[in-house]
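Researcher: Next entry in the queue.
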Amino acid sequence: MKNEPRPKSHDSSGGTIAAFQRRGEVIKPAELIEVRGGDKITLTARRIYNQLLANAFGPDMAVAGREFRIPFADLRGNHTSNDRVTEAILSLMQTLVRIRMSDGSTRNVHLLGPTDVERFGPGIATMLTYELHPKLLPILRDSQIFARLEMQILHGFGTKYGMALYEMIAKRIGLKHVFYHDFDTEELRDYLGVPHGKLGPFAALRRKAIEPAVAEVNTLAPFSCNAEVAETQGRKVTKVRLTWWIKSAEERRTQWEARRGQQGDLFDSDLNEEILTALPGLEPCS
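Model: Structure for this entry, 286 residues:
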């Protein structure tokens, strides 16, 4: 991976954990967005990890040994069983990912530390107690760059590729005078979480991963994007250019109305009015 500087899309002088996390959003350090080796992490696991970060957010999330608690009901979504949640938690504990640190070095780490499951009586598990992995604490403590992710948008994705692309753009959307980024094709494949050995030809990668991800982002996010070939060597596509732009107020309102009809069980009309007014994640950056 090239030692390119990190984009300062959301720079907080007090660090990421000093930022204000608005209702219904997740503040996610940039280092935890574009990771490699996470191809086995499912859509459900990605969504749950964001919920765990949001639940833990604050100064204490960078304290060694700090435990956090969250009801299983908050993680199940529309499902009545805990099976998917349990599988996702184990996946986050077991999968080793490669994270690029702010100084350009690479850290190999599991995304989640120890967990405990509380049961009240013989019935279904009711409470998850968890720790963030200790090797993540320097990132959580020192990261200066982050993305603001809307929880309702995260719940709307049907593919992990779309969710990954949404996070990648959300990390950059506040950049002034920067509206595109060229990704090495193999890096983009890793960042999207394409399984190892799958979608080898670029045509398959574009048809099965990139195009569906772009379509989902354009449907769900407060911004739009496009992906096109930026560089080739012979017949091999070596770089893909990702471009993005903020939707107009009218486009966002139309989208908001559509989401309210499609996600009624998750929809908080007051919250979405706040989103239309405040546009979290789209504020200008210094």
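Model: The first helix runs from residue 43 to 56.
Researcher: Noted, moving on.
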